[in-house]
Amino acid sequence: MLRFFRNIRQKLIENRNLRKYFWYALGEILLVMIGILLALQVNNWNEQRKLASLENELLNEILGDLRVDSSRYTYTIEDIEEQIRTAGLLRNHMNKRLPYHDSLDTHFSSVSFPPFSEVVTAGYESLKNVGFTTLTTDSLRENILLYYDVALFNTSVTNRYDLSNFFRERIYPKYFKSFQWRYVGAKPSDYEALQESNEFKIALDYVLNDMSYYKRQYETILSFNIKLMEDIRNELNR
Fold this sequence. Notes:
By secondary structure, the protein is mostly helical. It has 8 helices and 2 strands; from the N terminus they run ααααααββαα. Helix content is 80%, strand content 4%.
């Protein structure tokens, strides 16, 4: 092809036909420019395909993480509800000065282990590494960022208020003679003294108050999680 154009150019020069040579040269320049523009367009299409593929990979990874979060949050809410029932049962025994029964021992031990669930951030970290602008839909990007802000904040709060350590450091050594989590349980040193203890009653209040707060938080995050999964599925199918 290049040889063909070169021959035409050579003949025009030999014939001294400057007018035709001018139009030929102009045409050749236009062909080169069109070729460059086509190459740039093809390259742009390739880049767009790569970005779209990367976006889909990230959204699928985040969607997988959200499924795990959803399952964890559902179980955590159920465990929190059980924790609230346990603390309420013990608080009722203390307030009404009901008699001791060894079935209380499992409640004494399990009440100090508040259930928590941490958010899975693998997909979010991948997105952060490549840049949030990889997501082309503004509303979806904003909702993903908001979800992880809320979920990570919730994790930081649960880590800050550690009821388990409070019981281990303040309650069990002072009021119990043995401890084994769950099935054997914690046995009070003096049940009547435990009933009189304002410190233990307040500790149970901590559990009731904190667990009620966390239940609301997890329910809110779970609703957000379900809606976000729906938005991502719609984006992937778009």
